[in-house]
Amino acid sequence: MTPTFAAADAEALPLHVIEQGGVDAWAEAQPEPVRAWVAASGFTGALNTALAIPGEGGAPAMALAGYGTPAQRARTRFALAGALPALPPGTWRIASGLPEADAPREALGWLLAGYRFDRYKAQDARHPGLVAPEGLDAARIEILAAAETLTRDLVNTPAADMGPAELQAACERLAADHGARVETVTGEALLERNFPMIHAVGRAAAAHAAPRLMDLRWGDAGPRLTLVGKGVCFDTGGLNLKPGASMGLMKKDMGGAANVLGLAQAIMALGLKVRLRVLIPAVENAVSGASFRPGDILTSRKGLSVEINNTDAEGRLVLADALAFADEEMPDLIVSMATLTGAARVAVGPDLAPFYATEDRLAEALQAAAGPAADPVWRMPFHEPYEAMIEPGIADLDNAPSGGFAGSITAALFLRRFVTATPAYAHFDIYSWQPAAAPGRPKGGLGQGPRAILGALPGILGL
């Protein structure tokens, strides 16, 4: 269930947000019993702490939430959410102490902290409720939380229940909820419609997991925005089989698709004046007699030939056909999202969403929007001298250059070869997974980049 704010007229207890070092100043204005309780508790306002203060009957009458220091908050995306596990259940309202500029971010973090993935096992549903602070666009924050919930649910679902067919069903449910339409090309029809690389990557899977391309459209006015998400629902590595330790998280290899679907949901729910298109190539990179092989040369939709030097570099292949298809329409902006390379994780770790942009204005808008959206991104370079690394000699392109250097950059350069008619293109090489629980971000599937993209769209597209 998507977390929402409590009703404005709900009975809510006051919550005072206290910076570290500010406890004494707050307590001076309180009655003696409250001062004594706070003094006896040892509460200091540290991050990830809270203190319930009882009333005359012993039940909580108010609470304090630690807000740490500015330096500590700079290292914590959703500082207030860290106090929630120490708060008693119930509904709360912010009574004092939360800076107005912080309120949108911290209110979003509060909602995101309430996420539970309970499809297979009941989870602890206790989560303190919050009345939306005054002056916030509560509806927008709830839409952002709902988009993140969709993304997390899709990524967290194992491949047995989130294969290409189930990902198609999720896309169709989203379209039905918002009056969009979806066309899907499946199996051998991919060859008839000229999506040869999507077909090649997915053809080894069982019949129920046949490769497919979903094409969602919504909106009939405004700039054209096309989102492309990698939907590799499970990645064995193909004939270049991954070791077991590397295969354990491969249910999340459709994280790019999950992120663009979450972003699309937010765009449609907010009613942005755009002509939205979402393209998702959905495959399972399986092993069978039909698997594509190292040394094969595939011809892409765009006509470029690709030498396969590693079947585990399959995401860029399915994206390439989808990007070429997107580019034929020449939209105002194309954004691709993919859990594409381990090299990106080595470069920036799991917490940042690295991206590539063909235009400085596009990159600047994304970077400017990331902070307010609490969705950190980092620009990476389309480094032209590395183009030679993806040119193998016997084909136009190499899907896995040898040597191991600059793996994220060479993958982005590979994708850029398929976007030649659309000037504005951004590619996100994301992780889409929270490896350890943090405030507002439970361990598991994660949205990375959509809120920054959403915040940047008005400036990029002139909305």
UniProtKB/TrEMBL annotation:
One of its GO terms (cellular component) is cytoplasm. GO terms for biological process: proteolysis. Gene3D superfamilies: Leucine Aminopeptidase, subunit E, domain 1, Zn peptidases. InterPro entries: Leucine_aapep/pepB, Macro_dom-like, Peptidase_M17_C, Peptidase_M17_N_1. Pfam families: Peptidase_M17, Peptidase_M17_N_1. Signal peptide: none annotated. Keywords: Aminopeptidase, Hydrolase, Manganese, Protease. Residues 310-317 form the Cytosol aminopeptidase domain. One of its GO terms (molecular function) is manganese ion binding. Belongs to the peptidase M17 family. PANTHER family: LEUCINE AMINOPEPTIDASE-RELATED, PEPTIDASE B. This is Cytochrome C oxidase subunit II. It comes from Roseivivax isoporae LMG 25204.
